[in-house]
Amino acid sequence: MERILIIGANGQIGSELVTALAQQHGAANVIAADIGTDNIYGAARYVRVDVLDKDAVARLIADDDITQVYQLAALLSATGEKAPLKAWTLNMDGLLNILEIARERGEAGKPLKVFWPSSIAAFGPNTPSVSTPQYTIMDPTSIYGISKLAGERLCEYYHAKYGVDVRSIRYPGIISYKSPPGGGTTDYAIAIFHAALRGDTYECFLGPETTLPMIYMPDAIRATIELMDAPAEQVVIRSSYNVAGVSFNPRELAAAIQKKLPAFRIAYQPDSRQQIADSWPKSLDDSRAATDWGWKARVKVDEMVEDMLANVDVGMS
Ligand code: AKB
């Protein structure tokens, strides 16, 4: 029986992962943790804890006999640029605290399986941008991307040196309707749906031809759970796996929305996020995830657009 802790549970991925893991393992075996007082999503027991407080997290893990931790607390790319030191501290020390706890518990005969999200932000301007390989040049330019690349190296190090069973995915931009976007460069692909449903012209902060890898939330959650459920010997890569969903640019996404809402209009006003997006891949080669643990994306753009338009709650935006 698994006992699961999700740190950063009120964020975009956490909010949906809590529900999926509670369904899979039973709500009594899942703890949602975050720094706020509110249990926003309510599918599991909620505990207020800061991932930067290592002793408090270690106590929680010991007291509740936790066997799996999802460490999702982070500042994303756009927010990170506004507070680089805060982003570095949260993103690196948060991960290091969890890896250290996993090392200590492993040495005490109580292994802790860890999931940590990397991102397409770990790549940079000199990375081949089309069908970006699993192993390639990585020269991230945002503080968020630098923290993701460093985090990947830490994950591989803790696995090689201490045998920590840590697993990771380089998430593309994740599109979802249940929680608001969280300060990323790919947020436009969520905000555009809110504007379309409100009947507003969407002013896009990226230019029309800015193609980026994206993934719809159900595929992202399935990838995460499939990786965590894979037998350890199949998880050959312990830095982080490329996982692809779909790739499109704002002009193409707007056109897909216009098929359903012909009156929808988009205008372009690129800001500082354009520079971040320009340094990221356009599409990913995820063949290692396919070969090693059977990953295959399912959701296509038109299906995603239809589902978003049917489910986005404009009251939330
Ligand atoms: C961001 O835009 O910062 C994130 C990411 C791609 O990691 N969505």
From TrEMBL:
One BP annotation, GO: L-threonine catabolic process
Occurrences of domain NAD-dependent epimerase/dehydratase (ranges): 4-243
Pfam families xref list: Epimerase (PF01370)
PANTHER family: L-THREONINE 3-DEHYDROGENASE (PTHR42687), L-THREONINE 3-DEHYDROGENASE, MITOCHONDRIAL (PTHR42687:SF1)
InterPro entries attached to this UniProt entry: Epimerase_deHydtase, NAD(P)-bd_dom_sf, NAD(P)_epim/dehydratase
Protein name: NAD-dependent epimerase/dehydratase family protein
Family: Belongs to the NAD(P)-dependent epimerase/dehydratase family.
Superkingdom to which the source organism belongs: Bacteria
Natural source organism: Massilia cellulosiltytica
GO terms of molecular function: L-threonine 3-dehydrogenase activity
